[in-house]
Design brief:
PPR_rpt; about 70% helix; about 130 residues; RNA binding; TPR-like_helical_dom_sf; PPR_At4g14850-like_plant; 8 helices; repeat
């Protein structure tokens, strides 16, 4: 995972993917690293494909995919992933909530933004957005 992360940091996703493919059973951190790298390099479709292939996702996986969509100005998809995450019973953290609120602001969807804000208040989040 460390070497995959190093390649990701310099957005050398061909090398990161090649190395990751040599790992028989990727851990969640390796998957997350690939998703983040592909998102940051603008290949959100491949990031989404990897996300959908993941056998196990954690809060970082979900937040990374939400952030990947937001990074690529695909705010509706970011909100859709957030909705799916909560439907699956995954509890968001402050990073997730900040990203979702930002996506709502970019879209100008006040009604969804208010719902997200109510959720943050009800669940005791302290956000610095």
């Amino acid at each position: 995972t460390t070497m995959v992360s190093a390649y990701r940091k310099v957005l050398d996703m061909d090398s990161a993917n090649s190395l990751a493919n040599q790992i028989p059973e990727k851990d969640v951190a390796t998957w997350n690293c690939l998703i983040d790298g592909y998102s940051k390099s603008g290949n959100v479709e491949l990031a989404e494909s990897l996300f959908n292939q993941m056998p196990v996702k954690d809060i970082v996986s979900w937040t990374t995919m939400i952030n990947g969509y937001s990074h690529n100005k695909r705010y509706r998809e970011a909100i859709a992933v957030f909705n799916k995450m909560t439907e699956e019973g995954i509890i968001p953290d402050e990073v997730t909530m900040s990203t979702v609120i930002s996506a709502c602001a970019h879209l100008g969807v006040l009604d969804i933004g208010k719902e997200v804000h109510v959720y943050t208040v009800q669940n005791g989040f302290v956000l610095d957005v």
